[in-house]
Write a structure and sequence with these properties.
- Its EC number is 1.1.1.22.
- One of its GO terms (molecular function) is NAD binding.
- It catalyses: UDP-alpha-D-glucose + 2 NAD(+) + H2O = UDP-alpha-D-glucuronate + 2 NADH + 3 H(+).
- The chain has 18 helices and 14 strands.
- By secondary structure, it is α/β, with parallel strands linked by helices.
- The protein has two domains: about 190 residues, 3-Layer(aba) Sandwich (Rossmann fold), CATH 3.40.50.720; about 190 residues, Rossmann fold.
- Strands 3-2-1-4-5-6 form a six-stranded parallel beta sheet, with helices on both faces. The protein has a six-stranded parallel beta sheet with strand order 11-10-9-12-13-14, sandwiched between helices.
- Helix 9 packs parallel to helix 12.
- The chain is elongated.
- The N and C termini lie far apart (about 60 Å).
- The protein binds uridine-5'-diphosphate-xylopyranose.
Length: about 425
């Protein structure tokens, strides 16, 4: 099929490259001409395992191209995905300006039937507005359909998530739209949930809000474990083996971050508010997430006593492993909280340092984890990169001023740390003092 993807950010690029891999002819469009030129030269603006190779291969065999022209893309494609950003507008609501502009631009260029698909995460009822916008701006009599096809991919495993989804959701209002999307996704052999547009929009927000709720739940349980000296990982395993609960997203830590959960949760609270429902549960989920960072600072204070003037080594800046994304990273929030207490910060992340340098002030960025340890008063694990799980801990111990590790991601075994002679403080597990 001939496909256009408007918006070459995270979701747009991964979707475009994967649909090309499935044998479609895809044009990825972006209004940032610098980004489009870079993509044409093979430079990928984000780090995502496997994406560079996938893009390169599909550009080479002419199934994937890049453009700044919505006009050309609309002309060439039967199905047009809108994958532009929907950032927080500052009051919790999603900013849909980009969606409106793109919908109007598509409308102006519509000459014959096109299926316009919302891929960006949008509040319920956006589909209605997209339809109205297209109807307002359309010049001729071309028929069109609007559909919703939310994306559930996770950064760091986006290509695998796209190619092997648990489910595909399509919200449609006509047989033609339904058939086109079923045909497009047939090669993935995944369960396809066909709904109306509003339900599809809500499935995305509700899924992300539910996953965030699971994380806050286990983080709240970790606080009880801290006091009761129970082990949160054992509690999570015992809970998660119940199929009704499931094992995923029960890792206690420093709280969720990233470009989706915080924003989508806010957006759902805000839509609910607008509709007259006070979604108190989700407000509490957010509060627990914020509180988790304060709890971590308290743990650091509890083990260092005075933070002012001490050097804290931080391993991990990205909001999760296998990405260079630092948007809403709890690691960055923690660094700021510690700096406010007067700490000196040394930090390392395998992929996140380039972006972090542009944002963090007064941080010493190090070339490797061991340089972070050298002369630091303690080591704090903020992101669970595999590289950190495989550190030479005896070397770490020698380099640190004192053998103190505060592990915000529970990546080490407390018993092993005790044997190695560390003071080891983790989340929801007995401290090794
Ligand atoms: C999420 C959704 O998973 C995905 O379906 C959607 O399309 C986009 O948002 P992503 O933001 O890439 O994906 O990352 P995810 O793996 O879901 O993690 C989000 C945050 O939750 C990270 O900060 C992560 O560290 C945290 N997390 C995740 C936990 O703290 N504990 C867990 O058990 C799982």
């Amino acid at each position: 099929m001939d496909i256009a993807i408007i918006g070459s950010g995270y979701v747009g690029l991964v979707t475009g490259a994967c649909l090309a891999k499935l044998g479609n002819k895809v044009i990825c469009v972006d209004n940032d001409s610098g980004k489009v030129s870079a993509l044409k030269r093979g430079q990928i603006p984000i780090y995502e395992p496997g994406l560079k190779e996938l893009i390169k291969g599909n550009v080479k065999n002419k199934r994937l191209s890049f453009s700044t022209s919505i006009k050309d893309a609309v002309k060439a494609s039967e199905v047009i995905f809108i994958a532009v950003g929907t950032p927080d507008s500052g009051n919790g609501e999603a900013d849909l300006t980009g969606i409106e502009h793109v919908a109007a631009d598509i409308a102006i260029n519509l000459k014959s039937y096109r299926l316009i698909v919302e891929k960006s995460t949008v509040p319920v009822e956006t589909g209605e507005w997209v339809k109205r916008t297209i109807t307002t701006h359309i010049k001729g009599k071309a028929a069109f359909d609007v559909a919703s096809n939310p994306e559930f991919l996770r950064e760091g495993s986006a290509i695998n998530d796209f190619m092997h989804p648990d489910r595909i959701v399509i919200g449609v209002e006509s047989k033609r739209a339904r058939d086109l999307l079923l045909k497009l996704y047939r090669p993935l052999h995944a369960p396809i949930v066909v709904t109306n547009i509003k339900s599809a929009e809500l499935i995305k927000h509700a899924s992300n809000a539910f996953l965030a709720t699971k994380i806050s739940f286990i983080n709240a349980v970790s606080r009880i474990c801290d006091i009761a000296e129970a082990d949160v990982r054992e509690v999570a395993r015992g809970m998660g083996l119940d199929k009704r609960i499931g094992q995923g997203f029960l890792n206690a830590g420093i709280g969720y971050g990233g470009s989706c959960f915080p924003k989508d949760l806010e957006a759902l609270v805000s839509i609910a508010d607008k509709m007259g429902y006070d979604f108190k549960l989700l407000k509490e989920v957010k509060k627990i997430n914020e509180g988790q960072k304060d709890a971590i600072v308290d743990k650091i204070k509890g083990s260092l006593w005075i933070i002012k003037g001490k050097t804290i080594g931080i391993l991990g800046l990205a909001f999760k492993p296998d990405t260079d994304d630092i948007r809403n990273s709890p690691a960055l929030d923690l660094i700021r909280l510690l700096q406010r207490e007067g700490a000196n910060i040394k930090a390392y992340d395998p992929k996140g340092m380039v972006k972090a340098r542009g944002i963090l002030k007064k941080v010493t960025f190090c070339r490797d984890p061991y340089l972070v340890c050298r002369g630091s008063d303690c080591l704090f694990i903020a992101t669970e990169w595999n590289e950190f799980k495989e550190l030479n801990l005896l070397k770490v111990k020698k380099l640190l001023k004192r053998p103190l590790i505060i592990d915000g991601r529970n990546i080490y075994e407390p018993e092993k740390m005790r044997k190695l002679g560390f003071r080891y403080i983790s989340v929801g597990r007995k401290d090794i003092c």
